[in-house]
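>> received
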Amino acid sequence: MSKTNQITLLTHFFCILCMSIAGSVSVFAQKPDSSINSVRSKRINKTPVIKASVPTYKPKYNSSYIQYSEVIASAKTNTTTSLRTEKILTVLKIYPNPVDDQINLILRIDRETNFSVKIMDLLGNEVVTLANERIQSGEQTKNYNIPNRLNTGIYFLKIVGGTETIVKRISVL
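>> returned
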């Protein structure tokens, strides 16, 4: 054997020896897998108890009687809000539904106001305006013709009286 072959053979031997030593030593300081199996989890046999102090419900008034002074106090604070929340528009009936060529509305208006009736599609787009007028107070019956260009399907009838809006679903044949 030549000297170069012997040097090459020795170099390979030392490389293999170094690799075997390096392979047995953990490179990244990890624990071997066998130590994971030796760790046992704790088993809890009791259910947890939640401790809280919740006050019991005590009604404000006895025997369902309200004290007169509190009625007067609440009336003074609610007079301004009750004027704003009073209902202007009430739709009593929409017929026939499904609609073919004419729709009838029975509604009640508490005071004279602007009034509009619109037909909207399912996406909320305005399709037809049936009415846009000033209307007197009282109970009224309105009749509107449905245009022929309206396709068969489901629509919404948007009724606006003053600041109130009522939306009802209608089917068009």
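>> The radius of gyration is 42 Å.
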